[in-house]
Design goal:
15 helices; mainly alpha
Amino acid sequence: MSIERIVHMMGRWFGILMLAACPLIFWPSQNAGADESGLSMPDGHFDAGSLNGGIPSFYKGTPSPSDIFGGTLAGEGALLCRAETSEKDKKGEEDWAGYEEDLDTVPDPLEDINRFFFQFNDRLYFWVLKPVSTGYQKVVPETLRIHINHFFNNLFMPVRAVNCLLQGKAHAFGDELTRFYVNSTVGFGGFVDIARTHMGIKPHEEDLGQTFGVYGVGPLIYINWPFLGPSTLRDTIGSVGDGFLNPVNYGVDETKYLAAGKGLELVNGTSLRIGEYESMKKAALDPYIAARDAYYQYRKKQIKE
């Protein structure tokens, strides 16, 4: 069986699973908070055990849960671990209220809609993406999955390189060109990250959303897209622009193979991160707020670097 045939079959089965899950995703839960995803809580809120940082990397530029929560919130613990104070501690409540006023948060005028799609993405992750990625994880050895991840990372070099240039980071631009040349040749087409392991040259994770931010464009408003996860209006426009720099969109002629390739990238990447999101979601009192603020702080940190 040819490789194209295998990729086509994987894309087709992934699409069938996605379509089959849609009725389940919108089906009302009869036992609120009883399942792993902690859904259907009163007043549009969610159980503390249900935090989805936008589901892992649905599009290039979306940080994984480990990226968002791993280090960015080390100094923002109050956003994730907001303790409930008793009525007896009025002074503590007043201090916290004053702290909240000073927090730098992203405007969220579409919160009701965003919360709805947050719940949709949460169910999509637990009911479709995680089971598929878990099965994939059991079949494909971890070493091979890491090499596949390197391959896709190498393909996205034009997005990183162009944005390094637009931001005036000449050294980083040179690093990206060097990485691509080395990994595409002696790195077996990008499957092995020789530039990082043997030359110490790490990728520079730059995108058009960050470029806009460097030149003073604010996030505008927060948007939680179905399937794609957390973003802002600025980053959404940036991701569309980055799509024109993505060689995958030009190197594959047929839509079915393009969809299969993107599905493989998604499932492969998620299989390398299963458990990270689940271990961190329990820290949030309001998962939606935690994911929104974590994404915003993460993107601010990226822009400053």
